[in-house]
Design a protein that fits this description.
This protein is α+β, with helices and mostly antiparallel strands. The chain has one domain (2-103): 60s Ribosomal Protein L30, Chain: A, CATH 3.30.1330.40. 26% of the residues lie in helices and 33% in strands. The chain contains two helices and seven strands; from the N terminus they run ββββαβαββ. The radius of gyration is 13 Å and the shape is globular.
Length: 105
């Protein structure tokens, strides 16, 4: 959803777009899939990860945070966006869900 210079991307799950199914694997692979899904949405709207100003991350267990964060960090250079991480019950098979807000002048 675009509103002026803002782009709001609703929660993305680790769904393989080719198969339409959640990839059931490690938190690292699931995080990579979520971030690649977000990347595709950003690019389709002519944004990139440098435009992301806020992220909300849902994890099935906060014990997964360190592994999640290692993969998540690979998608940003320079300053990281503001972020909140929440432990939550997610769709069956998903370990992570991420929503973002991006802004572009």
């Amino acid at each position: 959803m675009q509103a002026g210079k803002f782009l709001f991307v609703s929660g993305q799950l680790p769904i393989d777009p080719k198969e339409g199914k959640i990839i059931t694997s490690t938190i690292t692979l699931q995080t990579r899939q979520v971030m690649e899904n977000i990347k595709a949405i950003l690019e389709a709207a002519n944004y990139n990860f440098g435009n992301v100003i806020q992220a909300t991350v849902y994890l099935t267990s906060m014990a997964l945070f360190d592994e999640f964060n290692k993969e998540y960090a690979k998608y940003f250079s320079g300053e990281f966006p503001a972020r909140v991480a929440i432990g939550a019950e997610l769709k069956t098979g998903a370990l992570v869900e991420i929503s973002i807000v991006a802004y572009k002048d």
